[in-house]
DNA sequence: AAGTGTATCAACCGCATGACT
DNA sequence: AAGTCATGCGGTTGATACACT
């Protein structure tokens, strides 16, 4: 079936967003939400396509975006999750409060992938200092009140791969008013606490997300070919728990549970 | 100080998918 | 059932900042 372009290109602006555009977008989302990205730019008076507005909001203007460098714990989490999930950046992002799929994808390609590649010890040290962009940045233009730190992973957000992420601004505001429990992993304990919800959410996801092939494939061997996944995740949650424990063991991963 | 190479990251593009008609 | 629309996702690109010579 044919698909129309996401937006009519004529007359629409592209490229980097200006502070004024950011301000307009934030103000509009704050006031009206973003139930319809396609109509939003017209309503807000922006010469952008809805897709561009959505991306800008998701990746930069959202109030729960965490800016600045990734912590070592976050990087390790990305590596672990990538081993289990592959390039499912949005799913990985759902596990890292305040981080976007785009950001994680960039970090993976620019840092983490290289880190995993074996190198002579002499090349381990980074050649460059962190760039300005890597340093904590000034907060993006936002009309939203309250802390801009990350919020704990909410069910809506965790399941963003399978459900609409149309979260109202009110939701974000409410979420932002919570303590910044997920803002930073102040200790390993805190970090792993965040992952306490991993299994329940992961198990829930398996009803719609095709069952983490990599983990399944690796675990299949140890479970034997006859150990087919349950037809319904609800009827055998233990299967998936064992599956991931097995997969973690096989990959010599630190236990995340 | 200037030129060049490279790393980084914001933004774009095209496709997949689900909802709706 | 088929077509259209809207959104989400992952891959890719281009501008820019920075390191190195």
Short précis:
One of its GO terms (molecular function) is DNA-binding transcription factor activity. The chain contains twelve helices and no strands.
Question: What can you see in these coordinates?
Answer:
InterPro entries: Homeodomain-like_sf, Myb_dom, Myb_TF_plants, SANT/Myb. It comes from Zea mays. Residues 9-61, 62-112 form the Myb-like domain. This is Myb-related protein Myb4. The structure is a single chain. This protein has twelve helices and no strands. It has helices spanning 19-32, 40-44, 50-61, 72-85, 89-94, 101-116, 155-158, 169-177, 188-194, 198-205, 213-223, 237-250. Residues 1-6, 120-127, 132-138, 142-245 and 248-257 have low confidence and may be disordered. Helix 11 crosses helix 12 (237-250). The longest helix is centred in the middle third of the chain and has 16 residues, at 101-116. Helix content is 47%, strand content 0%. It has a domain at 19-61. It binds a DNA duplex (21 and 21 nucleotides) through helix 3 and helix 6.
What layout of secondary structure does this protein have?
Blueprint (H helix, E strand, L loop, with lengths): L18 H14 L7 H5 L5 H12 L10 H14 L3 H6 L6 H16 L38 H4 L10 H9 L10 H7 L3 H8 L7 H11 L13 H14 L7
This protein binds a DNA duplex (21 and 21 nucleotides) through helix 3 and helix 6.
């Amino acid at each position: 079936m044919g698909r129309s372009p996401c937006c009519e290109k004529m007359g629409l602006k592209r490229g980097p967003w200006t502070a004024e555009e950011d301000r307009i977008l934030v103000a509009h989302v704050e006031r009206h939400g973003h139930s319809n990205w396609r109509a939003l730019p017209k309503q807000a008076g922006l010469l952008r396509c809805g897709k561009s507005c959505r991306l800008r909001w998701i990746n930069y203007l959202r109030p729960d975006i965490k800016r600045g460098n990734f912590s070592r714990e976050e990087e390790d989490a990305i590596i672990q999750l990538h081993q289990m999930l592959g390039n499912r950046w949005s799913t990985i992002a759902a596990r890292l409060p305040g981080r976007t799929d785009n950001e994680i994808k960039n970090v993976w390609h620019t840092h983490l992938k290289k880190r995993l590649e074996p190198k002579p010890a002499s090349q381990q040290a980074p050649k460059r200092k962190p760039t300005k962009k890597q340093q904590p940045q000034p907060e993006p233009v936002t009309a939203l009140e309250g802390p801009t730190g990350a919020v704990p992973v909410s069910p809506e957000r965790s399941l963003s791969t399978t459900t609409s992420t149309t979260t109202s601004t009110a939701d974000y505001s409410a979420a932002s008013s919570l303590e910044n429990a997920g803002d930073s992993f102040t200790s390993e304990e805190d970090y792993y606490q965040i992952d306490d919800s991993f299994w329940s959410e992961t198990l829930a996801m398996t009803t719609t997300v095709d069952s983490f092939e990599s983990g399944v494939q690796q675990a299949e061997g140890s479970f034997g070919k006859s150990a087919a996944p349950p037809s319904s995740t609800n009827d055998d949650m233990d299967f998936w728990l064992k599956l991931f424990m097995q997969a973690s063991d096989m990959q010599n991963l630190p236990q995340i549970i």
